[in-house]
Each structure stands twice: as structure tokens, then as C-alpha cells.
Amino acid sequence: MIVRIMGEGQVKLADSHFTELNKLDDELLEQMEAGDEEGFRRTLAALLDAVRRLGEPLPDDALEPSELILPAEDATLDEVRDMLSDDGLIPG
Fold first, then answer.
1. CA angle 14, 76, 15 (to 5 degrees)
2. Confidence at residue 64, expressed as pLDDT on a 0 to 100 scale
């Protein structure tokens, strides 16, 4: 799956990594619902770090459609809330 981190670029992630990413996504959703700004910041950074660590960066000139778009690390709670689906940031 091709994942875009806003303001950074795209990475290609194997589907096998989504179990780990969904755990972080669930935690992020809980922290957002609780208004836990500190926890939200920490978990968003961990989620994006995991995507960077597990994914293979695509070249800057690659024109692949992104199947998933994640917020930038400095996104606000409200900005991320606007991006959420019923499943969080990551479907599944």
C-alpha cells in the first residue's frame, strides 16, 4: 500500500505491517476522544515513526496514487480529527 505523510512524501508499506499500525491508530483515537493532547502528540509521532521505519520511501518524483494519507507530525488535534473516518486514520 502507498502511504503519504503530509509534507514529507510517500512510502510503500507491506500489508503485514498494518496490525502494528492499527494498534497505534486505535490508541491515537482514544487519546483524541479523551482530549489528551500530550498522549495524542506522543502516539502520532510513534505512528509516523513506525510508517517511516517499516515503509520503503518512494522517490520524490514518483507519481503513485496514495491509498492512505496521514497527517504531518505537527498537525493539530482538530486537523487530525477532520481526517478521521469511523476506523480512525487507518482503515481496518
1. 10
2. 84
